[in-house]
UniProtKB/TrEMBL annotation:
<keyword id="KW-0812">Transmembrane</keyword>
<feature type="transmembrane region" description="Helical">
    <location>
        <begin position="180"/>
        <end position="199"/>
    </location>
</feature>
<protein>
    <recommendedName>
        <fullName>Transport permease protein</fullName>
    </recommendedName>
</protein>
<keyword id="KW-0472">Membrane</keyword>
<feature type="transmembrane region" description="Helical">
    <location>
        <begin position="65"/>
        <end position="89"/>
    </location>
</feature>
<keyword id="KW-0813">Transport</keyword>
<dbReference type="InterPro" id="IPR013525">
    <property type="entry name" value="ABC2_TM"/>
</dbReference>
<keyword id="KW-1133">Transmembrane helix</keyword>
<feature type="domain" description="ABC transmembrane type-2">
    <location>
        <begin position="31"/>
        <end position="267"/>
    </location>
</feature>
<dbReference type="Pfam" id="PF01061">
    <property type="entry name" value="ABC2_membrane"/>
</dbReference>
<feature type="transmembrane region" description="Helical">
    <location>
        <begin position="32"/>
        <end position="53"/>
    </location>
</feature>
<feature type="transmembrane region" description="Helical">
    <location>
        <begin position="147"/>
        <end position="168"/>
    </location>
</feature>
<keyword id="KW-1003">Cell membrane</keyword>
<dbReference type="GO" id="GO:0005886">
    <property type="term" value="C:plasma membrane"/>
</dbReference>
<feature type="transmembrane region" description="Helical">
    <location>
        <begin position="110"/>
        <end position="135"/>
    </location>
</feature>
<dbReference type="GO" id="GO:0140359">
    <property type="term" value="F:ABC-type transporter activity"/>
</dbReference>
<feature type="transmembrane region" description="Helical">
    <location>
        <begin position="245"/>
        <end position="264"/>
    </location>
</feature>
Length: 272
């Protein structure tokens, strides 16, 4: 009697299981969960207490403007910083080396990380939007077109920042240094991309520097989905520039993918 050989699960199926495992492990770390979700809420509350009143004749409160930027910042925090630090730590403690030696398809690891990043980004966005709607009057997109804008800005932003986080994970020499290495550029981008400071109040040269990176365009895209068109008066170009937003975020997705292929390492520096 011939034994029937069952087919091993595919890379996608293994990746989804890996993603569920990543989520379970993440939510067991209470400190990480609290820091990830509480920090943006605290910052939004602090800025909401400091900055009040309308932006010129736009009819938009300062706090509504900052809510859109804080949502974009939260997305980048759980992807660029969160993924980068987690992967650097797993490389340093030998987790990646052990996974590399298993029969698990390499792509399954990244599918799992993608599921983790996407889930955390959705939760972060929902929490910040709920705070903004409850305390500062931020309203959901007014029509299907704005919902569509919110969707593609979210997807491209999460994809670009996730890929860059994976690529940057190879830069820290150790897992302990990863938070400092990843948070430094993130913090600088927050101050230059319209998260903590009105973007049109920045010097022209600083606006040009910020426009190179994805966070500025994520903030602008979310403002276009969540705020009225009266806010166009506060945009340097006087337009939402959806085409440019999509082009630049898509370009960063491509650049991040190339960087991942060129720089990703399964072993730590001490392993040679």
């Amino acid at each position: 009697m011939t034994a029937v050989m069952s087919r091993p699960p595919g890379a996608v199926r293994i990746g989804l299981r890996r993603g569920l495992l990543e989520l379970r492990l993440y939510f067991r770390e209470r400190e990480a969960v609290v820091f990830t979700f509480l920090m943006p809420v605290m910052l939004l509350s602090i800025f909401g207490a400091i900055f009040q009143g309308e932006l010129g004749d736009t009819g938009v409160d300062y706090r509504q403007y900052f809510t859109a930027g804080m949502i974009a910042s939260g997305m980048m925090s759980v992807t660029f910083v969160g993924l980068g630090v987690a992967i650097a730590t797993e490389r340093d403690d030998g987790t990646l080396k052990r996974l590399y030696g298993t029969p698990m398809p390499r792509s399954s690891y990244f599918i799992g990380k993608t599921l983790l990043a996407l889930t955390l980004s959705l939760l972060e966005t929902a929490v910040l939007f709920a705070i903004g709607a409850t305390l500062y009057g931020v309203e959901p997109p007014a029509d299907p077109g704005r919902w569509f804008t919110l969707g593609w800005v979210f997807v491209l932003g999460v994809a670009a920042c996730s890929l860059l986080g994976i690529a940057m994970s190879s830069l820290p020499r150790t897992g302990r240094s990863a938070p400092a290495v990843l948070n430094l550029p993130f913090l600088a981008l927050q101050f230059t991309s319209g998260v903590f400071v009105l973007f049109d109040s920045l010097p022209g040269w600083l606006q040009q520097v910020a426009a190179i990176f994805p966070l500025k365009w994520m903030c602008q895209g979310l403002r276009s989905a969540l705020l009225p068109d009266t806010m166009l008066a506060m945009e340097p170009a006087g337009a939402w520039e959806h085409g440019r937003i999509a082009l630049i975020l898509g370009g960063w997705c491509a650049a991040g993918l190339v960087l991942c292929v060129l720089t990703f390492r399964w072993k730590g520096r001490q392993d040679g």
